[in-house]
Write a structure and sequence with these properties.
The protein has 373 residues and is an alpha/beta fold. It folds into 2 domains: 32-233, TIM Barrel, CATH 3.20.20.10; 250-361, Lyase, Ornithine Decarboxylase, Chain A, domain 1, CATH 2.40.37. The protein has 12 helices and 21 strands. Strands 1, 11, 12, 15, 16, 17, 18, 19, 20 and 21 form a 10-stranded mixed beta sheet that branches. Strands 2, 3, 4, 5, 6, 7, 8, 9 and 10 form a 9-stranded parallel beta sheet that branches. It has a two-stranded antiparallel ribbon with strand order 13-14. β3, α3 (65-71) and β4 form a beta-alpha-beta unit. It is elongated and about 70 Å long.
């Protein structure tokens, strides 16, 4: 086991795996002539941000102005807030952009007009494009709205157009063939928009941000920058898609065993929705999977040859459907690891990490209520 004792649910981070994921994505970006501008919403950690600098990462993406403020002291070349800008946060944007290079995401004329009226310092902006996901963004064919945003932004020289951004989030629930089709749509949309507006804006760039496409695809024509986030940790969802192997997952929840029912093949863990979130995978047999058990070792964790998984969770409890080998080799008070279904949400729930050597690693949502010895 580790050099420290886990007394309550603890999110372990394997630095070696995390760095391996960063290196692979950095090398892929370089191979295809892309800028890697990773999304930090997955890890939300200054320490992990420091690791990113080892892989020629100069700019970052975040999902809120709170997150931008958290990472601003690290003095990145630019911090992009990849969320439709919240008009109630103009004052905070002015305060932060006075000393730091920022960019925001615009999807309508109203917020653009507000920024054009009130922005005091230079801020870049991307127009977010919806090329099929349907969550947010300007429809790819709505040139009227795109040009209204551009015209309104020109009324304030501090509001500077940077390019177009697409997050194809529907790849997270797609097959490999569907991911390839979605990626082709993203490329075509960005290529078309760049061709259409490049004469007027010769410096514009195009950015795509979903981890499945960035992990699986090898043709990025029409795309200048990639901004995946989940790849830094990966998770069981990504493994089920094929974006990674389970061995590439860089975080695991260390969870104490509080009861064992051998007759039912069940292990009760202190690991519930408040730790893992309630993201779920539906298995081929129709049963729900809220996380898979790994065996904790001094060097990290090992993946058993037969799968044991969390078949149900409540707020604090998690019930493992256990393989016979596992249930016969553990006892109450032991600690098991759980690979998360969605590492971004698990990290957000836990609010901190522990390295394999027992070092506390920060998180924006830092939770001081965990006890370590």
């Amino acid at each position: 086991m580790y050099s420290f004792s886990v007394t309550s649910p603890t999110l372990l981070i394997n630095e070696d795996i995390c760095r391996q994921n960063l290196r692979k994505m950095s090398e892929k970006a370089k191979k295809h002539g892309l800028e890697l501008i990773p999304h930090f919403k997955t890890h939300q950690s200054l320490k992990v941000g420091e690791w990113c600098r080892s892989y020629n990462i100069q700019e970052i993406t975040v999902s809120s102005i709170d997150m931008a403020s958290y990472f601003a002291p690290q003095n990145w070349q630019n911090i992009h807030i990849a969320f439709p800008f919240n008009p109630r946060e103009v004052q905070r944007l002015n305060e932060l952009s006075e000393k730091h290079s920022l960019s925001v995401q615009l999807v309508n004329e109203e917020v653009t007009a507000l920024l054009a009226e009130k922005l005091k310092y230079k801020v870049g902006f991307f127009i977010e494009i919806d090329a099929g996901y349907g969550r947010t963004g300007v429809e790819v064919s709505d040139f009227g709205l795109i040009e209204k945003i551009m015209r309104m932004a020109k009324t304030n020289p501090n509001l500077q157009f940077k390019g177009f951004y697409i997050h194809a989030g529907h790849t997270y629930h797609a097959t490999l063939n569907e991911i390839e089709e979605i990626h082709q749509q993203t490329k075509a949309a960005l290529h078309m928009l760049k061709d259409k507006y490049f004469t007027e804006f010769p410096g514009l760039v195009t950015r795509s941000g979903d981890t499945p496409s960035c992990s699986l695809m090898d043709d990025f024509e029409g795309i200048d920058q990639i901004g995946p986030g989940n790849f830094v940790f990966y998770d069981l969802t990504q493994a089920s898609i094929g974006s990674c192997e389970k061995e590439d997952i860089a975080v695991a929840l260390a969870a104490p065993i509080v009861d064992i029912k051998k007759s039912k093949g069940e292990i009760l863990l202190h690991a519930g929705g408040v730790h893992l979130s309630k993201d779920v995978l539906t298995q081929a047999n129709g049963k729900k999977n809220f996380g898979e058990v790994v065996l904790l070792t001094k060097s990290g964790w090992s993946i058993p040859s037969k799968t044991s998984y969390l078949k149900s969770i409540s707020q604090e409890h998690g019930i493992v459907q256990a393989d016979a080998t596992l249930i016969n080799n553990v006892k109450i008070g032991d600690v098991l690891g759980v690979l998360p279904i969605h590492s971004c949400m698990t990290a957000d729930c836990m609010g901190s990490y522990m390295t394999l050597s027992g070092e506390l690693v920060d998180h924006l949502k830092g939770n001081p209520n965990h006890s370590y010895k």
